[in-house]
Amino acid sequence: MTNAREAHLATADQYARPHIVPIVFAYEHPFLFTPIDAKRKSVSDWRDLRRIRNIETNGRAAVLVDHYEEIWTRCAWVRLDGVADLLTTGEEHRHALGLLAAKYPQYERMPLRDAPVIRLRIEHIAQWHG
User: Fold this and answer.
1) Tens-digit pLDDT profile for residues 24-33
2) Residue among 124, 128, 127 at smallest CA distance from 60
3) Count of other CB atoms within 10 angstroms of residue 59
4) What's 7-129's CATH class?
5) Which residues of the chain have pLDDT under 50?
6) Which helix (H) or strand (E) holds 91?
7) What CA–CA distance (Å, rounded) separates 92 from 119?
8) What's the CA gap between 106 and 42, in Å, rounded?
9) Where are the domains of the chain?
């Protein structure tokens, strides 16, 4: 799971309406970190992203990391459930940015600088493999 390159973050608003987006991530038990980086977004201010608004009003989130192959016995997934919050300053924020930059060489060309980071405190792990 820690070597996977992408996953999907699921959040829900105060009415339990789900929202799922693909993410890049770094995992360091008991946390998963995903940045709000400089890739183009649907809004000009990151604070207006639906995942951010959902985290601020609900906080419950899940991340699904999956692997698919045509030979179904090689398929697998891991779901991480927990509570998400935002890191924007401080030592843990800098540490998370370092983990992400170390995992993804793309951040050499698109530096994270002081990008906000979603931190998921993992409370439950479910998994399956073929």
Assistant:
1) 999 999 999 9
2) 124
3) 15
4) mainly beta
5) none
6) helix 91-103
7) 10
8) 21
9) 7-129
